[in-house]
Amino acid sequence: MSRAGFIRLLIVAVAIVGLEVACHAGLIDPITIIPPSAMAAGAWKLLISGRYTEDILLTLGSVALAAALAVAGGFGLGYGLFRLPRLRRALDPLLASYYAVPTFIFYPLFIVLFGLNRLPLVAIGFVFAVVAMAINTLTGFERVPPVLRRTARALRLSEPAALVQITMPACAPYLFTGVKLVIAYSFIGVIAGEFVLSGSGIGHEIAFAYNNFDNPTMYGLMLLLIGFVSGLNMLLFAWERRFYRRRGLT
Amino acid sequence: MAVTLDKPTRVHRRLPRSVGFDRLLLLLAMLFLWQVLTWIAGPEVITSPPATARKLAAIINAPDFLGHAYETGRAFAAALIISLLGGLVVGLALGSRRLAGEVAEPLLVALYSIPKITLYPVILLLFGLGVSAKIAFGAIHGIIPVALFAMNAVRNIRSVHLRAARAMRLTPLQIAIHVLVPATLPEIVAGFRLGFALTLLGTLIGEMFASQRGIGYMLVQAMETNDTGTIMALALLLVTIATAASWVLLRLDRGLHGNEQH
Question: Which ipTM did the prediction report?
Fold first, then answer.
């Protein structure tokens, strides 16, 4: 393991142990934060009890659908903006300010449009995530060195072939960043929607546990969620590393 | 072949010099699209642009709006100062130390990517109901992107600048002010643009869940009563504010670079 990786692990371990000790020593009110061991126990208990399995699957399904739509849609949008530089330049201030509006305020509107089911939540996740993918695709395409474009033309590649064989691999770091952001943002969108107005899903259960001072369940669900998102990100990161190594980039 | 070779630069040169006309065109196109959506979905689902503007004017002229806006503005200003300055200091410090940056970057990225909305109960329990929870929630949304942008920018500074600074025996503070910040200004501004939007988002979310005042509270009330007109009007207000801020920062960035056209 690299030195930086070791120090990082040490920092995380010290933080967790420190929190554990502070909780047991009574420095932190157990109504505020419970010790990490109790969080883990809470997470384990609610996993084997099966009471929350349905909620967890519902949330994960909605997030997966929203993320898949956002990756595809955001890539198309980014590519379209890349081909239309005039539109891209005019749109610039709007792209940066897009994330100032909490997308889930449109939940009531989506309910009217899609009906009282999971689709409005998927729509929130999608709308929240799609622009992150579009921005990253656009930035990636703009940073592709001109020499690669010229190579594609010299080889007389068709536009789709050049896209798949040259442009996309060349801007892979940006596309990977985009996908990671899409995952995070779809989770935020779906869970925020559940948090505010839904009757099911992880977000709703966290809010419910919070309102009932049920700290083990609340922190257990949060731990599961954060663990899941981090795990997914690490998987993507590992895949990304392997991809770069194959291209001799590390 | 030669003709195709310089095609990209020719396309660039053909872009009109002033972007203002394009922006106006885009604005009109978006308003038209919005109106078309209203026609398709019906005015009770999506209020039309003129109706939304009228509603917004009515909301702004209502006697209690100033109090709500002041409440949000106060919390947002404090959160913004923490996000921008804190993010900048953290980013510059981590960027200029190789090992520290390597240790911190994956941690920061992991923190950035967790859905912070789930941490809301923790923030509430730590800070209590009130303005400090809102500020904290705004700041945790904004500080990490600002730090990440600044850190990556500092890492890419040409080492000759840093060596020159060391040769002149500048103190760390002097290095930060005279070398790091000027060399990384475009990335810092890009980070600030994103930080501004995300801090506003965080502050509003904070108000939505645990407040009796502010624009976030107005939004959550409108959501609960399914008052589409108010939701659209407030969304319009927020988009306008955030876009204006983003545009000002963009202009500032361009101004600092002299007359460079992008």
Answer: 0.76
Q: Which among A100, A153, A191 has CB closest to B117? A: A191
Q: How many CB atoms lie within 10 A of CB B123?
A: 20
Which residues on chain A are in Cβ contact (under 8 Å) with B109?
Answer: 180, 233
Instruction: Give the model confidence (pLDDT) of A171-205 as tens digits.
Output: 888 888 889 889 888 988 888 888 777 778 888 88
- Quick one: average pLDDT of A73-89? 90
> CB neighbours of B224 closer than 8 A, spacing ≥ 6?
none
Q: Is B6 on the interface with A (CB under 8 A)?
A: no
Place of tokens 């065109």: B25
Q: Is A243 on the interface with B (CB under 8 A)?
A: no
Global confidence as pTM? 0.81
The predicted pLDDT at position B38 comes to: 86
Inter-chain CB proximity B12 and A203 less than 8 Å: no
Range list of H helices, chain A: 3-24, 36-49, 53-83, 85-97, 107-114, 119-142, 146-154, 159-162, 168-170, 172-197, 202-211, 215-246
Neighbouring C-alpha atoms within 13 Å toward the C-beta of B251: 8
Enumerate residues 22 to 61 of chain B having a beta carbon within 8 A of any beta carbon in chain A.
22-23, 25-26, 41, 44-46
